[in-house]
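Exercise 7.
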Amino acid sequence: MKLYLASLIALAALAQSPRKQASPLDNLPKNIEVLTHFGERADFSPSNSSVAFMAKSFGDAFTIDLKTRQVRCLTCNIPGAAFLRVMHLSSGDYILIGAEHFTDIHTSRGRDNELWFLSKTPGSKPVRLGQKMSEGAALSKQSMLISFSETSGQNPALPRGASNLMVAEVDLTGPQPQLKNKHVVHSSPDNSCTLEAQDFFDNDRKMTFTCYEPKGLGSVWTIDLATKQVVNHTRSIGSYNEVEGIFPGGTHTCVESDRQGVLMGSTKLFRDVDIWKLKLDGTGSSFERLTYFNDYEGWKSSNPVVSTDGRMMAFQVAKSSDEAGVGYGILLMHFKK
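Solution. The predicted structure, written as tokens, is:
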């Protein structure tokens, strides 16, 4: 509680001062380093030895070795690749998310967005999993479980505005990879809460997800996959809070939040985000700011993921005027251990 109050006091002081007219990259704290000068949507490998990322929205997937800093393209053998995300399976293989080809931003990110399997064997080509889905996915760090959401935009059988949170297993035992045991774990009947899966935790017994709300609001939720009980962890915080990478142990998670923007009197709201650390206890009382990129005019930090050993957070530098997910380089924050 003391840390939370200290954060509020610091933010109140910040609200009285204008944003800095410079780049946050020129004033990085000692525990943050630039990993790449391009790219977005980072994801740690199961061994924490490399980071996968997208070169750009509707583009190619890459990896960078954290020891040698060697960069390798995963999809440059696919002409006109239009992927939005790359994520690691616990097997070391990849899941790609995106359309078969780019049509336009709305269509390719919505109606045509789907899941693909990409083998870790160099030179492999993506294999369609036959599943349209909305936005991002949750991938287990210890099994082949995957969760994703679908809306009426991908599944016309759903009422307009409705969304389902799905869980399935990626099955690699047959001649072709496929999804099996697919089932709905949570539903929203309308756009008062549009669902997006984020992270499994507690030995895959629970999962975090975001509830996107009207007027640019959002909240951080968890679901117990056995009992189906859901908990809103940011009800007391309000405004825009989108759950991101989870910390080891599952007691805390990263959140993209406009909390500091709200206190600074921002009118952009959900576009003025930075990265916060939230304790998943349902109270919202432990909410610690981790990055300060939004203190600089026109900048933000977003899309954080945490290594499974809890030593690093990868995230992207971005501009508050851009669409969600757009980034201009991957950075590493090193945590004290």
